[in-house]
Write a structure and sequence with these properties.
The protein has 165 residues and is mainly α. The chain has one domain. It contains eight helices and no strands. Helix 4 packs across helix 6. The longest helix is centred in the middle third of the chain and has 26 residues. The chain starts with 8 loop residues before the first helix and ends with a helix.
């Protein structure tokens, strides 16, 4: 993906943040690449944090991601461009949140991978209400919120079925 000429510094920064640097520009399935980047970073940047810090991180990613996604849509001239993957970071880390809420101190790699898969399924299929959020909330906030809901669905599904494994 090449950027349009004459992007302002703020637009360039927004596109860089929205695409997680080069991650959103990787070929084929940028959403999966974004989720994999979130999965790879989580054991160092998210899952070891206490609950309050995790919630603060999610709030920060939501706020910055909303700004970056909205600005990237304008700069790139497309609604919810595929290269914007900061929403996958928010959704994937939302899926990882229950490890702390349930009193688990650290997620195991297999559990993180299971949550990665669940999130990708919800994010791709977009069952109700995920699709309704995607269609009903415009701009950068809509880009971010549908993945937040998909992450919450993944977390709830995993928490529901975890006792059986």
């Amino acid at each position: 993906m090449t950027l349009p000429p004459r992007l302002s510094l703020a637009d360039s920064a927004a596109v860089f943040l929205a695409t997680l640097g080069p991650v959103g520009r990787l070929p084929k399935a940028p959403g999966t690449w974004g989720s994999l980047a979130a999965l790879a970073a989580a054991p160092w940047c998210f899952t070891p944090l206490p609950l309050a810090a995790r919630l603060a991180v999610l709030g920060l990613v939501l706020a910055l991601g909303t700004w970056a996604a909205a600005r990237a849509e304008t700069a790139l001239g497309r609604k919810d461009p595929g290269c914007v993957v900061v929403d996958e970071l928010l959704g994937q880390w939302t899926a990882f949140l229950p490890f702390h809420l349930a009193g688990w101190t650290q997620a195991m790699p297999l559990e993180l991978f299971a949550l990665f898969l669940l999130f990708r399924i919800y994010d791709i299929l977009k069952p109700w209400p995920i699709r309704a959020v995607e269609r009903g909330v415009p701009g950068g906030l809509g880009v971010m919120l549908d993945d937040l809901v998909a992450g919450a669905f993944a977390a709830a599904s995993y928490a529901l079925f975890r006792p059986f494994f």
